[in-house]
Amino acid sequence: MPRADNLLSLGLGEHDRLNKELGGGIPRGSIVLIEGDYGAGKSAMSQRFSYGLVEEGASVTLMSTELTVRGFIDQMHSLEYDMVKPLLNEELLFLHADFDSGGAFSDDDGERKELLKRLMNADAMWRSDVIFLDTFDAIFRNDPTFEALVRKNEERQAALEIISFFREIISQGKIVVLTVDPSAVDDDAIGPFRSIADVFLQLEMIEVGNDIRRQINVKRFAGMGEQVGDTIGFSVRSGTGIVIESRSVA
């Protein structure tokens, strides 16, 4: 069992049981993959992780391909995760990845830049203890270099170059969290990330009668603290945030 000081606590022990269910935190020096279809709760889980980590004193970078700063603050507020103070205190760095023509990731003439290369060279975003890329598949789907490799059926080669960079980041004791929609990207592209993830969480929506239930399937959890459940039921509630519903341990 790893030392407690090697785990970054997800906090909010009085608010929900998520940190306890995940064994007391995420091990430093980890790549975390959170996978799930649209609506499964990837962004909400990233936001919950971010808020809890900041509350526990960790510095966090969160890059979103979907939310603007205003949208992020509004969504966090609706989940009762007040991120205004951490943003103002620079404990949280929020970045909006704008892929539209003329956005931060386009040249003046509208040509898309090499996104992944630009991200790797953006030193400020990698200074935090924990870096979230939500959603990561949108980043490499919009990268022209990656697209060219995909057309040549060289997805794995492209993925391995990115993984090499991530390994360098986590060697400094940092945590990189990737969220991915598996329906939006080829298995050959996502396969290498599944293989190397130290923590692999699969979010799933299940219809039970008229209800939609969400659950976290813990596919891998290297360096866990206390025992981690195989399946953790949860819901996303306005005014409350993430709520743990049930747990089953194999």
UniProtKB/TrEMBL annotation:
Keywords: ATP-binding, Cell projection, Cilium, Flagellum, Nucleotide-binding. InterPro entries: AAA+_ATPase (IPR003593), KaiC-like_dom (IPR014774), P-loop_NTPase (IPR027417). GO terms for molecular function: ATP binding. Coiled coil: none annotated. The keyword Phosphoprotein does not apply. SMART domains: AAA (SM00382). Residues 28-203 form the AAA+ ATPase domain. It comes from the Archaea. This is Flagellar protein FlaH.
